[in-house]
Amino acid sequence: MERWAQTASHHHGDDDKRINTIGTSNADLPLVDPGMYQLDITLRRGQNLAARDRGGTSDPYVKFKIGGKEVFRSKIIHKNLNPVWEEKACIFVDQTREPLYIKVFDYDFGLQDDFMGSAFLDLTLLELKRPTDVTLTLKDPHHPDHDLGTILLSVILTPKEGEQRDLFQTQSLRLSDLHRKSHLWRGIVSITLIEGRDLKAMDSNGLSDPYVKFRLGHQKYKSKIMPKTLNPQWREQFDFHLYEEQGGIIDITAWDKDAGKRDDFIGRCQIDLSALSREQTHKLELQLEEGEGHLVLLVTLTASATVSISDLSVNSLEDQKEREAILKRYSPMRMFHNVKDVGFLQVKVIRAEGLMAADVTGKSDPFCVVELNNDRLLTHTVYKNLNPEWNKVFTFNIKDIHSVLEVTVYDEDRDRSADFLGKVAIPLLTIQNGEQKAYVLKNKQLTGPTKGVIYLEIDVIFNAVKASIRTLIPKEQKYIEEENRLSKQLLLRNFIRMKRCVMVLVNAAYYINSCFDWDSPPRSLAAFVLFLFVVWNFELYMIPLVLLLLLTWNYFLIRSGKDTRQRDTVVEDMLEDEEEEDDKDDKDSEKKGFINKIYAIQEVCVSVQNILDEVASFGERIKNTFNWTVPFLSWLAIAALCVFTVILYFIPLRYIVLVWGINKFTKKLRSPYAIDNNELLDFLSRVPSDVQVVQYQELKQDPSHSPCKRKKNNLG
């Protein structure tokens, strides 16, 4: 590692001394007693900074890092080589041997930010409890001769000892316990947004583009946008969780969507859940306050005990009576009893090993989050440990057997949001019951490994008939999801995925056209004879029959060991490139004052990006159905195709079309509040796309983490 020197000048009152510091490894520094220090920094200004833009200027901002972790980021000063920030930061450090790194960047909208120089401040050279003015000379390690200007700081280092340090830790414990308790929910609020009536016109054409936002505590839901109407028909269903016995207040706001500018407020209303009776559906017509019109909703409150946390000593499936009761509840004899209750999931979070060190002390304070759709439970925090043992048992009610269990490990921080340490995503249909397994932790995008493994033991019990029925019902939407953001790499990846799906059809069309052109006389003759035979003998039942034969053919190929499925290295490479892009310095969220048209363009780009993803995923899901990527779904497809083949064989097409038409015309009369859905699309939504297949693949663990090897080492 190349070492480089820099100069920092400290001013203590009348004293003026210059200190030359050399960047060294931690091994070169003397060990100090661990403690707690408060570092107060005022970022004053920069002088003669480097020009990185074409106009001979820069848009500088500053990052502070300690122990590889970013602890502060300044605002952006546009078009200025002598910026004045005057920003203050308060940082808590466990020890002073880790230097404070200062990095300066030039902000570039939509591009990678340019490096403008870095410096570091040796905290061991600061006098305690004494204000110090510091001038740091910026350098580039690769070009140490370049003059990149200076950064001026004011710092004061204050020790926090004894009761003060214990107070910080006690507050952290109390906060984490409170946070954990908030995730134990006691019931479900099922809401169906039916329609709006006589809403206020917000646009110049006398109409609106309304959507509705719901909020219950930290839970949020946003409806779809209904364009150009004052009487929108949403017919959307979603669930919230009840965390309080007495209920709560649901805040509802209606908005008009405006492209390129701030959305217009239409009105608001509330639902007091404590006034509603349980286990009963209530039809509510709510008057919008501060606006005009009504919202019509169906609200159902259901008591639930479907999630729980316990220690390993309290285990539902090891208790013989409880296990028999659970097996009886999901036996084939009860296939039509409570169709929404598909199965039972038990997750034992045992321990983790070799986690990443997130704190400057070389340790972490890890806790684990277990999520299944909108059910989210947490373990306790194990402090100062890279090999934590939790030994907790979580139980969940399964509403969709195609759900994915997500287990995420975080590092708890006293003064900031938790740091990500690793994650695994496990489709329920891939789980092998009762097997303690070491899962290699992945990064946030689930595209590659990060440091550490986590040991889990998972059991799934479900009713296959209920699971099949639920496959044809819309998926439960997550109400806590990250906002979509514009990504060049993601846009390129989705475009390439869609192009590959389209090229399959294009190549097939070229092949058929080559038969018409008689490029190969034997092939064209065979195609002509086949065409005459099929057209002369065609019956409608042959369509599902051909698909059935294709599924069966691929199944026997896989069973015979001639698996034609290949790992999609193209998708994996694209995901790795996207991960590298995310690992680059994050773009500052501060706006640069562009006109509203820029934001409209960005919104369109995000929409195009999402459409490309949906189209590519649709084609990949169809392919993966026939490739037996999820055997359960392929078997279900075989059963459905068999039924369709028999129906189309024995029943004339005109009667089938007649029944379909009568059903479509009378559906609204029979069930006024029914939510429209497409069973085929609901089925395909359960089939993973190529990206999801890569994300759900298990990584091969390091042999050093093998349980067998651990036992041998212990015996030795």
From TrEMBL:
<keyword id="KW-0812">Transmembrane</keyword>
<keyword id="KW-0479">Metal-binding</keyword>
<feature type="transmembrane region" description="Helical">
    <location>
        <begin position="525"/>
        <end position="558"/>
    </location>
</feature>
<keyword id="KW-0472">Membrane</keyword>
<dbReference type="GO" id="GO:0046872">
    <property type="term" value="F:metal ion binding"/>
</dbReference>
<dbReference type="GO" id="GO:0030672">
    <property type="term" value="C:synaptic vesicle membrane"/>
</dbReference>
<dbReference type="Pfam" id="PF00168">
    <property type="entry name" value="C2"/>
</dbReference>
<feature type="region of interest" description="Disordered">
    <location>
        <begin position="1"/>
        <end position="20"/>
    </location>
</feature>
<dbReference type="InterPro" id="IPR000008">
    <property type="entry name" value="C2_dom"/>
</dbReference>
<protein>
    <recommendedName>
        <fullName>Multiple C2 and transmembrane domain-containing protein 1</fullName>
    </recommendedName>
</protein>
<dbReference type="InterPro" id="IPR035892">
    <property type="entry name" value="C2_domain_sf"/>
</dbReference>
<feature type="domain" description="C2">
    <location>
        <begin position="320"/>
        <end position="441"/>
    </location>
</feature>
<dbReference type="GO" id="GO:0005789">
    <property type="term" value="C:endoplasmic reticulum membrane"/>
</dbReference>
<keyword id="KW-1133">Transmembrane helix</keyword>
<feature type="domain" description="C2">
    <location>
        <begin position="169"/>
        <end position="286"/>
    </location>
</feature>
<feature type="domain" description="C2">
    <location>
        <begin position="18"/>
        <end position="136"/>
    </location>
</feature>
<dbReference type="GO" id="GO:0055037">
    <property type="term" value="C:recycling endosome"/>
</dbReference>
<keyword id="KW-0968">Cytoplasmic vesicle</keyword>
<keyword id="KW-0106">Calcium</keyword>
<comment type="similarity">
    <text>Belongs to the MCTP family.</text>
</comment>
<keyword id="KW-0770">Synapse</keyword>
<dbReference type="InterPro" id="IPR013583">
    <property type="entry name" value="MCTP_C"/>
</dbReference>
<feature type="transmembrane region" description="Helical">
    <location>
        <begin position="632"/>
        <end position="660"/>
    </location>
</feature>
<keyword id="KW-0677">Repeat</keyword>
<dbReference type="Pfam" id="PF08372">
    <property type="entry name" value="PRT_C"/>
</dbReference>
<keyword id="KW-0256">Endoplasmic reticulum</keyword>
<keyword id="KW-0967">Endosome</keyword>
